[in-house]
């Protein structure tokens, strides 16, 4: 389900991050959601249709509007630049229904949240939830410099680690002093997520207590050809286009949800492959790498790829 | 829309009965002359003829008040039929909101919901209830939120927590089940509670079904039909009460099979709950005797073929293997060998 909502507020909260608020054009209430949920924002940018997923940062129970915080990615594919530069209050955008791939585990005894920079966003809605549930939590936010600290509702209890002030996060200490039954949630850069998860595993944290979220942008690469067996079409995927986008452009129906390699919706079987799949997703097991591809983020390099679409 | 509610029982003298209109709207589950498991999910949207059970999100029919009385009897005997683990409290409120909102919109003459911020007033006219309470405050309702609303809603309810890439049966109201037990299944995950189902695991059904369910989205509910058979129109066929209903299976004869043997159809739907991200799984049970089913010629013909050709292990799992010869003999009278039309609705 998608609704067309009005951008009602646009406010810079740090040099690179801007907060956006969307409301129903007739003032109707929006569906409530759960902490950690995201929405898909569809942007019509001239000829290009852009779709990006952003975590909701507003109170999950506040149905008067949805808020997101977007970091400008100058090296990105253009969605964040569109929002920063072209989107203005009054503009109507398509906003999907909230989807949660990063919910709190409500059986946890304590919630340990670790954020890097703009990775704070999913925790902002979750904080409303933990406070309402009176659940114990600990929040660490790592930033490079003080001026990166976004003017968002970050609670006083949060511990802010500023690397150029020498207060870097001591991960080992944080992870080794938590009570049993604590669940860990991490959101930030790929490098940070990997570092935290590796450290937690080394310290003996159970796998089911570890949660992370990173939406990947489709990686650019060399153009490639793909045979779509069921639709009997051969497509060329451009350097800055994803396989999913190429399928959509050719009118081949492919389900999707996060478009960031995390949800599993667009999983597609490989029928023939003479070459190498560049898997960029968080979804497939290594054992599935020769039989499946996630068209939203993954690419191909080689002579022949045939997929079941 | 007005419904006239039957005065009937689902135990003892079994005075349950379907009106001709209820028979025609019975969700006959077979769209062809054979049956095998499938992940037969579809969007839960209003479809079918005007009086179809699919028209409204939570179907209310002529059995409503009697089913609610039967649920109250079962709960009084065994309160463990309704359970909710502590972390499912928010999901209970989600479910209450979902049902109240849908019923008030779909049946404005029967149910009304007035919301003034967190102060809510709920009027259930058929049951004569008019309650005011504070949303999310358990102390303002006579029962927990899930129990409160499901004592007023037909069908069983499993409320599933989603975590670790799995679904967990962590809350529910289950009093009209086809031989399973919430008290036994509570806390189990999707694979654990489906373990007794023959064949399906090898067929990869569960992996696919779980994947589908984990992706059910807010405002996009899904549904499927499932079926089994029961002797006598009994809602509470739980393992706990097997001594009461198990022996009745042996009471079927060639003379009474048409009236005693019931096709039991579950309209299962799946809803993403917004605040808790849990999944609500209502299982609405419809009962129809064989002699009522055969009043629809297409259904009589088709049911004969389905039951006759069903593999032995499925007939056994569905609990009617001992009575199958009697059932097939009875139904064969109504199979004239003509082809049946596609789809589930009467011709």
UniProtKB/TrEMBL annotation, chain A:
Its cofactor is FMN. Residues 1-105 form the FAD-binding FR-type domain. It is an enzyme of class 1 (oxidoreductase). One of its GO terms (molecular function) is oxidoreductase activity. SUPFAM superfamilies: 2Fe-2S ferredoxin-like, Ferredoxin reductase-like, C-terminal NADP-linked domain, Riboflavin synthase domain-like. Its EC number is 1.-.-.-. PROSITE patterns: 2FE2S_FER_1, 2FE2S_FER_2, FAD_FR. Keywords: 2Fe-2S, Flavoprotein, FMN, Iron, Iron-sulfur, Metal-binding, Oxidoreductase. This is PDR/VanB family oxidoreductase. It comes from Paracoccus aurantius.
Automatic annotation (TrEMBL), chain B:
InterPro entries: HODM_asu-like. Pfam families: HODM_asu-like (PF11927). It comes from the Bacteria. This is DUF3445 domain-containing protein. It comes from Paracoccus aurantius.
């Amino acid at each position: 389900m998608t609704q067309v909502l009005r951008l009602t507020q646009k406010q810079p909260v740090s040099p690179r991050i801007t907060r956006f608020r969307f409301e129903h054009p007739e003032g109707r209430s929006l569906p409530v959601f759960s902490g950690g949920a995201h929405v898909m924002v569809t942007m019509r940018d001239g000829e290009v249709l852009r779709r990006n997923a952003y975590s909701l940062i507003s109170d999950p129970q506040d149905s008067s509007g949805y808020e997101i915080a977007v970091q400008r990615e100058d090296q990105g594919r253009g969605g964040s630049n569109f929002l920063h530069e072209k989107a203005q209050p009054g503009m109507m955008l398509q906003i999907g229904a909230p989807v949660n791939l990063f919910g709190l585990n409500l059986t946890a005894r304590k919630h340990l949240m670790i954020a890097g920079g703009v990775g704070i966003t999913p925790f902002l809605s979750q904080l409303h939830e933990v406070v309402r549930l009176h659940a114990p939590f600990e929040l660490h936010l790592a930033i490079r410099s003080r001026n990166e600290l976004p003017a968002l509702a970050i609670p006083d209890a949060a511990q802010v680690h500023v690397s150029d002030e020498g207060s870097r996060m001591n991960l080992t200490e944080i992870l080794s002093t938590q009570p049993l039954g604590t669940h860990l949630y991490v959101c930030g850069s790929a490098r940070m997520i990997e570092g935290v998860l590796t450290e937690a595993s080394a310290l003996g944290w159970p796998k089911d207590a570890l949660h992370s979220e990173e939406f990947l942008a489709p990686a650019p690469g060399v153009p490639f050809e793909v045979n779509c067996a069921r639709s009997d079409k051969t497509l060329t995927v451009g350097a800055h286009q994803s396989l999913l986008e190429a399928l959509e452009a050719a009118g081949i129906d492919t389900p999707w949800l996060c478009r960031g390699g995390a949800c599993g919706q667009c999983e597609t079987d490989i029928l023939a492959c003479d070459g190498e799949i560049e898997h960029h997703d968080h979804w497939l097991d290594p054992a599935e790498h020769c039989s499946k591809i996630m068209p939203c983020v993954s690419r191909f390099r080689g002579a022949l790829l045939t997929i079941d679409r | 829309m007005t419904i006239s509610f039957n005065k009937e029982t689902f135990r003892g003298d079994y005075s349950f009965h379907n009106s001709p209109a209820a028979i025609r709207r019975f969700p006959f589950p077979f769209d062809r002359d054979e049956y095998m498991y499938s992940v037969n999910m579809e969007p839960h949207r209003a479809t079918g003829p005007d009086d179809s059970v699919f028209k409204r999100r939570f179907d209310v029919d002529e059995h409503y008040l009697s089913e609610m009385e039967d649920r109250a009897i079962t709960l009084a005997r065994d309160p463990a039929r309704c359970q909710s683990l502590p972390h499912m409290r928010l999901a209970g409120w989600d479910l209450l909101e979902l049902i109240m909102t849908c019923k008030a919109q779909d049946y404005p003459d029967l149910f009304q919901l007035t919301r003034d911020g967190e102060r809510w007033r709920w009027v259930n006219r058929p049951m004569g209830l008019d309650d005011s309470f504070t949303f999310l405050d358990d102390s303002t309702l006579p029962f927990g939120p899930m129990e409160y609303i499901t004592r007023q809603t037909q069908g069983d309810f499993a409320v599933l927590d989603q975590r670790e890439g799995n679904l967990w049966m962590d809350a529910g109201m289950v009093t009209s089940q086809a031989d399973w037990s919430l008290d036994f299944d509570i806390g189990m995950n999707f694979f654990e509670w489906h373990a007794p189902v023959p064949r399906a695991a090898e067929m990869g059904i569960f992996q696919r079904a779980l994947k589908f369910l984990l992706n059910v989205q807010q405002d996009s509910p899904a549904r499927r039909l499932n079926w089994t058979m029961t002797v006598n129109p009994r809602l509470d066929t739980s393992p706990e009460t097997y001594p009461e209903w198990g022996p009745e299976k042996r009471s079927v004869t060639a003379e009474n099979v048409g009236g005693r043997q019931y096709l039991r159809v579950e309209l299962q739907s799946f809803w993403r709950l917004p605040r808790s991200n849990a999944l609500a799984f209502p299982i609405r049970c419809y009962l129809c005797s064989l002699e009522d089913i055969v009043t629809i010629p297409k259904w009589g013909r088709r049911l004969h073929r389905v039951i006759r050709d069903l593999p032995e292990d499925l007939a056994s799992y569905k609990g009617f293997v001992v009575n199958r010869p009697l059932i097939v003999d009875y139904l064969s009278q109504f199979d004239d060998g003509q082809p049946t039309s596609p789809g589930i609705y009467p011709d």
